[in-house]
Amino acid sequence: MEWGYFVGAGIAMISCGFSAIGEGLLCAHAIDGMSRNPEMYGKLRTTMILGCALVETTGIYCLLVAILCLFVH
Fold first, then answer.
1. What is the pLDDT, as a whole number, of residue 26?
2. How far is residue 22's CA from residue 26's CA, in Å, rounded to a whole number?
3. Among 9, 36, 40, 65, which has the minimal tally of Cβ within 10 Å of its Cβ?
4. CB under 8 Å, gap of 24 or more: what pairs does 65-68 form?
5. pLDDT tens digits for range 29-72
């Protein structure tokens, strides 16, 4: 087996880690906004959930690419 597949899987998992960091920052800043302006709770929560779904999808795609690099070639 060539090393390129393993390198590709590693890069995909690094991207998955950055996705997790981004999701954490997104939730932290949304909670910070909710604590500063409680009237915007509903809009901030909806936007946070949508953003988390998009970021989580990126992480799932990175995991899928890593699995494909390792087992399908």
1. 93
2. 6
3. 36
4. 65/8, 65/9, 65/12, 66/8, 66/9, 66/10, 66/12, 66/13, 66/16, 67/9
5. 999 999 999 999 999 999 999 999 999 999 999 999 999 988 98
Helix axes 41-71, 3-36, angle to 10 degrees: 170
CA 29 to chain centre: 15
Give dist(CA 42, CA 32) in Å, integer.
14
The amino acid occupying position 36 is R
The distance in angstroms from the start CA to the end CA of the chain is 9
pLDDT band for position 1 (cuts 50, 70, 90): low
Distance between CA atoms of residues 73 and 69, nearest Å: 7
Q: Cα–Cα–Cα angle for 24, 29, 34, nearest 5°?
A: 125
